[in-house]
């Protein structure tokens, strides 16, 4: 079920003293496709990793689906949050076949192996790769690898899908096609999505809501129309 995201006064200071996020607050309705836009170093990845539980926050609070997953005291690890992630570099396991890369995401759900593989094949078919389950990641093109990563993120049926510049390693042509695919697959998935990009046209093409980050501050948060007509 798609999850509400509530972030209150989130601050993240890395060891060594760099403040990646300062006092960021936002509230996202279930089922929203949120795009985080901002230049390199503005804190986008840090915010996504904080939602996923990969990064511990310094102060503030994060609630997912009404449940506090992080605050000054609580820190739920990634596998205790109902979220999945798609990375810029795909992050597939090189020693596992495509089918097993996708099925791996079901492990913690205690799905039996044979059933997991069958579901992986079904998910691969949905992303247009039904015929490639036996291959290894290094036998695929970049676009195919990113489809595998997407299949792995969606098969777990999590309420939150987090994407960190998933298309930026693909060439321009493929990027536009994959953008449409990602949008329709994620929207079918009954999930809330947070999608990072530094590409404005990508943001406007995908977003229900756009959040603009600048030097760790959320300087704008609204519909694409709002952001377009009154850019911060
Ligand atoms: P973006 O994804 O928007 O490019 P990041 O969230 O990766 O931005 O980084 C935000 C800021 O935090 C940058 O100044 C970056 O140098 C710093 N930063 C990111 N990761 C670390 C880390 N592990 N340790 C120290 N500083 C970091
Ligand atoms: Mg980043």
N- to C-terminal distance? 33 Å
Order of helices and strands: EEEHEEEHHHEHEHEEH
SS summary, helix count: 7
Strand content: 25-35%
Q: What is the rounded Rg?
A: 17 Å
Protein architecture, described:
This protein is α/β, with parallel strands linked by helices. Helices cover 31% and strands 26% of the residues. The chain has helices at residues 44-52, 98-103, 113-126, 142-155, 172-188, 200-206, 224-229; strands at residues 5-13, 19-28, 33-37, 59-64, 67-70, 83-86, 160-164, 192-197, 209-214, 217-222. The strands form two sheets. Strands 6-7-8-3-9-10 form a six-stranded mixed sheet, sandwiched between helices. α3 (113-126) crosses α4 and α4 (142-155) runs parallel beside α5 (172-188). It is globular, with a radius of gyration of 17 Å. The chain starts with a strand and ends with a helix. The relative contact order is 0.20. Bound molecules: adenosine-5'-diphosphate and magnesium ion.
Write a concise keyword list for the protein shown above.
alpha/beta; 7 helices; 232 residues
In short:
By secondary structure, the protein is of the alpha/beta class.
List the helices and strands and how they pair.
Blueprint: E1 5-13, E2 19-28, E3 33-37, H1 44-52, E4 59-64, E5 67-70, E6 83-86, H2 98-103, H3 113-126, H4 142-155, E7 160-164, H5 172-188, E8 192-197, H6 200-206, E9 209-214, E10 217-222, H7 224-229
Parallel strand pairs: 3-8, 3-9, 6-7, 7-8
Antiparallel strand pairs: 1-2, 1-4, 4-5, 9-10
């Amino acid at each position: 079920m798609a999850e509400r995201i509530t972030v209150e006064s989130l601050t993240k200071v890395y060891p060594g003293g760099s403040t990646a996020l300062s006092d960021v607050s936002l509230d996202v309705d279930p089922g929203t496709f949120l795009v985080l836009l901002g230049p390199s170093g503005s804190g986008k990845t840090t915010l996504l990793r904080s939602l996923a539980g990969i990064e511990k926050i310094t102060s503030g609070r994060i609630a997912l689906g009404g449940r506090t997953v992080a605050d000054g005291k609580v820190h739920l690890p990634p596998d205790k949050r109902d979220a999945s992630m798609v990375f810029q570099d795909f992050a597939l396991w090189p020693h596992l076949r495509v089918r097993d890369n996708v099925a791996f995401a079901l492990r913690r759900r205690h799905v039996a192996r044979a059933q997991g593989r069958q579901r992986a094949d079904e998910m691969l078919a949905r992303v247009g790769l039904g015929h490639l389950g036996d291959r290894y990641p290094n036998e695929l093109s970049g676009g195919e690898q990113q489809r595998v990563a997407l299949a792995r993120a969606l098969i777990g049926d999590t309420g939150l899908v987090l994407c960190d510049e998933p298309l930026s390693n693909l060439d321009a042509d493929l990027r536009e096609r994959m953008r449409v695919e990602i949008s329709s697959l994620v929207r079918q998935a009954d999930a809330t999505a947070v999608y990072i990009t530094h590409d404005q046209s990508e943001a406007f093409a995908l977003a229900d809501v756009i959040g603009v980050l600048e030097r760790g501050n959320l300087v704008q948060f609204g519909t694409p129309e709002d952001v377009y007509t009154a850019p911060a």
